[in-house]
Amino acid sequence: MIIKGFCHPPLSSERREAELDCSQTGQVTLRCGEHVIMASVAELQISPPLGALPASIGFADGWQFKAGLDYELAEWVRHNTIQPQRWVHRLERNWLAIVASVALVVVLGLSVYRYGIPAASHALTRLLPQAVPVYLGEHVLETLDEHMLSPSQLEAQEQWQIQDRFALLQDNLPPLPFELNIVFRSWPHGPNAFALSDGTVVVLDSLVEMATTPAELDSILLHEVGHVYHQHVMESVVQSALISVAAALIVGDSSGMADMLTSTGVFVASSGYSRDAEREADQFAAEQMLKNYGTTEPMAAMFNRFMEHYGDSELPEWLQSHPELEQRIQALK
Q1: How confident is the prediction for the chain on average, in pLDDT?
Q2: All CATH 2.30.29 domain ranges in the chain, comma separated
Q3: I need a surface site. Which of 88, 168, 305, 316 has the fewest CB within 10 A?
């Protein structure tokens, strides 16, 4: 049996006409111009056809042969390779097997996204040395101070009063992974407060001005402490890193398109995770408000004030970084 096709010289993509003589049992002869190569079947590197890719024969010195008519070489390969490769090749051409495999990959991917990445992030966060979240928190605060935030305009006495009252609240808190530290800043884009990975809680002047009672301000501060308690900041960082790596591996390169897909995937996924984090922080704050004030009404009042200030978001819920404020108020009730 002589199979006509083409060959590639060693370490070259040059394509030359060739023929493979398979008439002798256990031995083949490759003829490519003036080159004649004889080898036993045991010495060959036989690559069975993979899906739509043709079969190929590799020789010990680097020459490679592919048939002009793939079925001829594929038939010879089937008779000169071990049996398991035959059913693998059949699966590669079976549409039902392909569809089932794709469905399985999708289910596994969604399961990893929904359960695997959060679980891995939760575990990895608690394995990190304490120096990592401390460094990250300090670096983030420096960056915010440089580009976004301004020094607080609150009087020093008012800051001391808030810090002293918050220090008393800490006596009733469960053990925290980091020592809490409150800092005050000014920001022109609305009332807010946020926690950093090292236990720092940044309180904006506008939030202090929005609160009409100490309990209302404390409820938001306790909410931020809930983020510290559950280490949501570091979990979000680890989650984003894992999703970025997964997206880069799927795309397979570092082009601009890959960066865009990676950034989009991180944004969408992180927005979903942060909704769960906000609910956990709400629950933590509500428990502490009941313990210290016997009610969650001050917290609900602040949420109502936030809703009046920011208005109803026009974004769909799945793209919002926080749950709907109305849902959070109902949960408090």
Answers
A1: 81
A2: 2-91
A3: 316
What does each C-alpha distance from 296 to 166, 283, 300 come to in angstroms?
17, 10, 6
Whether the pTM exceeds 0.90: the reply is no
DSSP structure class, residue 14: -
Compute φ and ψ for 40, nearest 5 degrees: -80, 155
Structure tokens at 226: 């809930």
**H helix or E strand, kind and range, residue 56:** strand 56-58
Classify residue 13 as exposed, middle or buried by CB count within 10 Å of its CB (0-12, 13-18, 19+). Answer: exposed
Question: CA 62 to CA 60: how far, in whole Å?
Answer: 6
**Placement of tokens 């079947």 in the chain:** 41
CATH of 2-91, one of 2.60.120, 3.30.200, 3.10.450, 2.30.29: 2.30.29
Measured CA to CA, the distance from residue 204 to residue 152 in angstroms comes to 7
Across residues 150-155, what is the average pLDDT?
94
In order, the DSSP letters of 176-234 are -SS--EEEEEE-TT---EEE-TTSEEEEEHHHHHH-SSHHHHHHHHHHHHHHHHHTHHH
The H or E element spanning position 46 is strand 45-47
What is the Cα–Cα distance from 209 to 162, expressed in whole angstroms? 12
9/98: higher pLDDT? 9
